[in-house]
Amino acid sequence: MYSREETQKLKREFWVAFADKYPRKWILYDTKIKDFSFKFFVDNKRAQVLIDIEMRDAEKRMTYFEKLESLKSILEDEFVKDLVFESKFTLESEKTISRIWVEKLNVSVSNKNNWDEIFDFFNEKMNMLEMFYLEYDDYIKDV
Question: How many domains would you assign to the chain?
Fold first, then answer.
């Protein structure tokens, strides 16, 4: 078990090493859609690449989610397989969002031997989600 400080240091090292291996600017929050973002997540069980739709207005959130869902077959056939679509995902904070994600199980941020595998997963999946988004952003933004 790591102390809180050791965990924070390890996570900092992880993200610095990821940025060193794949030094590029990701879209992440720069989607030009408020509360619509791409995210990386890693813990001691899994790594995930996520699209979070976090509008407080549930109707607006669902409209964006349904737009992405309408493109699901294109997204999965041409870009990223094994995506999970969840229209009502509850965060630890109890906030309800819509989330689409792909994950790699049985990897850990605490195990440096997993880092390259996680980095490659992050790079491949996020790159493909960004390519999809850039190709279909006009349709997605048209709400």
Answer: 1
pLDDT tens for residues 6-57? 889 999 999 999 999 999 999 999 999 999 999 999 999 999 999 999 999 9
Question: Which distant-in-sequence residues (6+ apart) come within 8 Å of 23 by Cβ?
Answer: none
Rounded Cα–Cα distance for residues 100 and 114 (Å): 24
> Where are the strands (E) in the chain, listed by range?
36-42, 46-53, 84-90, 96-105
- Do residues 56 and 120 make contact, with C-beta atoms less than 8 angstroms apart? no
Run of H or E residues at 77: helix 72-78
DSSP letter at 113? G
Q: Which two tokens stand for residue 74?
A: 């294109």
- Secondary structure class of 99 (helix, strand, coil): strand
For the stretch 113-143, pLDDT in tens is 999 999 999 999 999 999 999 999 999 998 8
Domain range for 47 is: 4-141
Of the candidates 26, 134, 129, 138, the residue with the CA atom closest to the CA atom of residue 75: 129
| pTM over cut 0.90 | yes
